[in-house]
Every structure is written in structure tokens, then in C-alpha cells.
Amino acid sequence: MIIDHTNRRVLEVLESREKATVVKYLREARESGLLAHVSEVTTDMWDAYVEAAREVFGEAVAIVIDRFHVVKNLQEQLTAARREIQRTLPAEEARALKGSRWLWLTNPENLDEEEQQHLTELKTQFPRLAQLAEQREALRHLFDDASLTTPEAGMTRLREWSASARALELNAMNKFCDTLERWLDKIANYFLHRSSNGPTEGFNNGLRTLLRRAFGMTNFHHFRLRVLDRFGHPHPQEST
Facing residues of 2 across strands? Predict the structure, then answer.
């Protein structure tokens, strides 16, 4: 799905994620004038998207790896890291963690008072898990830090965060840091304009709603037309 973030609309739904398909669309859209003035492309960590954008738009266009996909990847590795730690605990201690996954994955401000108290007790009982929670919050606050206004400043802080995360000596965290460092320059481009694929996730929810209402849709052409009819028009507040 190709999104126009400026006007909050779906530009196109492609049948394939393959690089050739994406390149073909981007090149035609650029030559037609639709994408003639693109200055920034936001994407997830899919090589085909990044390579296609670079091939069509060149080095002048900033490619931004969406922060929410970075955090989603971190959440997955944090869960794996907690399991690493739990496997080292006596059975009785491990049982105390049963049903606590939600507490570790939720932003503290979204927990009620009782949940916050329970999480505080677990952090006291399991210091290594507390360190993992601190790493999660540190990365979240890093992305929210308004004082970071350049990719270079963002890269410096992200490298510092990665070194701190690796110091925990957990395989899952090292795996996440490997991913972070592989995509570091494009993740750091977030600090240019703080662009994200948040609206894209909203459109994805809309697409899933269309599919549910249609009880599934096996004809891609019909599905594409439905999506463009419903979501292909500029948002009223953004159009000029």
C-alpha cells in the first residue's frame, strides 16, 4: 500500500511486495508527476521497499524506517529476552511471573494504579527484568526527545542505547541491536521531520474492515478498487 502522508490518502494498492513491482509503480508515478516532488519516504524494514525507493528517487530523498516498526521489533525481542531470564529461574520464582506479560509491554502511563504497583513489585523481585523494562522506556523516550533534531544526533544516542542494551548480555537483545545497527542511518532519519507510518496502520485497519464486511475478497482487482474508492481521496482538512 502506497500512502500520501501529506493528504492522508491511499495512492495505490500493489499486488506484490516484490522490488520490481514497487519500482514499476514508483517510476511511473514519478514520471507522471504524481510523485515528482517526493522528499521523504517512510517504510518498514523490508529491503525491497528501501531498495526500490532509492533506485527511483536517488540519494536526494531521505528514507525513514518507521519508529513504530522499530519498537514493535523491540517488543518481540524483549519477550524473548524475558523468556531467556525466566529459564534461569527456579520454578517457584518463575510462577510469580505468570500472566505478567501485559505489564511489561504496556507503557507505564497506561497502567492503572494496581497494575503499576504489581509491576513495581516484580521489578524489585526480578532486577534483570527491571533492566529490560528500563531499556524499553529509554528507547521510547529517546524517540520522543524533542532536543534531537538531526539524524547525526539521533545516531549518536541510538548507538549509546545499543551499547547499554548489549551490556545486558542477552541473546534476544543482541539480536535487536544487530537489527538496529543494520538500519541505523535510516532509523535516525526519523529525527529530520519525525515522520512515521502511524497513518498507514490506520489505513490497514480500514482495509481489514473492508475485508470483514465483504466476508473476504479473493479478487484483488475488486479489492483494490474498493480501497481506492474508500481511502483514495484527500483528507478534507488537508486538501487545498
Answer: 12
Residue 239: is its pLDDT beyond 50?
no
Task: Parse the chain into domains and list their residue ranges.
Answer: 2-66+196-231, 67-183
Name the grid cell of 235.
483528507
Residues 6+ apart with CB under 8 A from 9: 3, 231, 232, 233, 234, 235
Query: Which pairing describes strands 40-43 and 9-12: parallel, antiparallel, or unpaired?
Result: unpaired
Over its C-alpha atoms, the chain yields an Rg (Å, rounded) of: 21
pLDDT grade for 238, boundaries at 50, 70 and 90: very low
Q: Give me the pLDDT at residue 38, please.
A: 93
User: Considering the entire predicted model, what is its pTM?
Assistant: 0.84
Asked if 122 and 97 touch (Cβ cutoff 8 Å), the reply is yes
Summarised one tens digit per residue, pLDDT across range 160-195 is 999 999 999 999 999 999 999 999 999 999 999 998
- Please write down the long-range contacts of 3-9, taking CB distance under 8 Å and 24 or more positions apart: 3/197, 3/199, 3/200, 3/203, 4/234, 5/42, 5/195, 5/199, 6/238, 7/234, 7/235, 7/238, 7/239, 8/199, 8/234, 8/235, 8/238, 9/231, 9/232, 9/233, 9/234, 9/235
Q: What is the spatial distance between Cα 4 and Cα 41, in angstroms, rounded to a whole number? A: 10
Number of alpha helices (DSSP H) and beta strands (DSSP E) in the chain? 13, 4
